[in-house]
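Sequence only, no structure available. Ideas?
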Amino acid sequence: MALTRAQVAELYTPIYDEFFLSTYKESTQKHPMFYDVIDDVTKEHRVDDLSALGEWVDANEGEGGGYETPILGYAKTYTPSKRWKKLATSFESVDQDEYALLKKEDDVKAMGRGGRASIEKNSAAHLYNGFTTAAPDGQYLFDTDHPKNSSETGTTYDNLLSGAFSHDNLELAETQIMNNYFDPKGIPIEPDEDPIIGYAPALRGPVARVLSDRAMERPGTANRDINRFYGTYTPIEWRYLASVHGGSNTAWYIIFKSMGMLKVVWQARPSFSSWIDEEDEVYNHKGRMIYDLGASNWRCGFASTGL
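Reply:
I predicted one. C-alpha cells follow.
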C-alpha cells in the first residue's frame, strides 16, 4: 500500500525533532551558568524587591517591641515574548523527489541553531549592555551610584569595576565588592564562595594567567609565587560576550548566580512541530519558544568595561 502525503510527513517529523535538538543543544549553552532559569506559564512574572529585615536589636525582659517593616524596593516584571522560525516544503518537491523532506535536514538544523543563538545572544546582551541600560532602580545595571533602597536614596553603592582584567585589578575588585555589597537594609552580603568570572574569548589568555595555579610562573624565570586566586573563581568564556556579537572584547564580569537576580523566564520552552497545509499544498515545519530575561536587581554582580 502506497504512503499518503500525511504519512510521509509523519514519518519524518520525529527525525526533524532530532535534527532540531541536535543543534539547539541546551546542555552546552552558557546562559544557564549565569542566569536562574525558571518556568512560569503565567502572562507575567513579577519580582517584588522586598527588603530583608535589618540587624537584630536588644530586648528587655518583660517588654515587647523588636518589630520592623520591610522596605519595598524596585520591582521587576518579566513579560515573555514569542520567537519562532518556519520553513516549508511544497507538495511538488515531494512528488518529484521522494527524499525531499529528508533533504531538509540542514534547514531544520539551522532552525535549531537559530533558536540557540536567540537565547544565548539575548542573555549575553543583557550583560554587555548593562553599562548603558538601566536596571530596575533607574541606574545602569553596572553603575557607581545605586541607591541603598527606595527610601534611603542618599546612600549609594558602586558595582562598576575599573580597568582591564589583571591580577591587580581583580584584587581591587574584591576590595570594592566588600565595600559595596550590602542588602537594602545595609547588612553586608556574603558573596558566593566561587563567583563566576565571565569574559569574551579575547580574554582567554589573561584570565588563564591570573586564575591558573601557576599563574605567576614563566619559562626561564625564577617566579614561583603562589596564586591565591586559584580555585576561588569559576571562569566562563562566552563567545556571545565578544565584540563580533555586539559585546566587548575587554569587558569582564563577576557574577553571583546564587543571588538569583539574573533570570530567564520560560513561558514555553523551545519546541518543534510539523503540519500539512492542503490549501497551499506545503509541508510546514516550525520552531517556537516564549521567554523573557533580565536582571531584577543590580546585586547580581559587578563588572568592568575593561578600559
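The CA atoms of residues 92 and 156 lie 67 Å apart.
Hope that gets you unstuck.
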